[in-house]
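Input for the complex:
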Amino acid sequence: MATQTAQQRRDDAKLRFDAYLAGCPSRRLLDRIADKWVALVLKSLAAGPQRYSDLARQLAGVSQKMLTQTLRNLERDGLLTRTVTAEVPVRVDYELTPLGSSLGQLLGDLKSWAEEHMPDVDEARQRYDRRT
Amino acid sequence: MATQTAQQRRDDAKLRFDAYLAGCPSRRLLDRIADKWVALVLKSLAAGPQRYSDLARQLAGVSQKMLTQTLRNLERDGLLTRTVTAEVPVRVDYELTPLGSSLGQLLGDLKSWAEEHMPDVDEARQRYDRRT
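Predicted:
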């Protein structure tokens, strides 16, 4: 069998998976990645590798439990790598994989959309609340 | 004061809002839009206006409560319009606004990403589970 190019592989996957379907694994993956903490972690790591403590500081208000679980899921899904260096205290660095970078661009756009369109959404909410 | 262009308005908002900050309203907006049901609704409406029953069919497995709440939030945020026609039974149509279209493109890309990269993520999960 001829080796598939990355593009052929993605085209093939596009035919096999459909997130509209409840039982499709891509529905669960969409649920995993359509998440504000995933967006903020990937956007933050797009600037370069970071330590756990840097991420915790940048993602103001995130709980340790939520950040740890988010990072573990992203590592398992192949979106980032986790490197432990034996120092005192132990140093843990996170870095995007190429797969994580490709998703990070999309989610970075989503973060920017929320910031740039906040005034439009605010006005829409005021109009809605006056009407109802 | 000179009227701002849409682009100036977005640039200005980009400086005022920052979803990394816990108290910023754009953090809550990001939380609202980074959601699989929002992604599937907006992607579905990108093809044209639809009735409630069409959406319920396309988004397999969505509960009535979740779909109704998602649609109401999207209407309040100015991303879609809801039109009620007095027929028997009453007919309700949903249609994207220009604001909803702009977000729908980003979220449609996210759905496609999940489908196209499902094999990569699957392989990464298998590697991770063998290691741990």
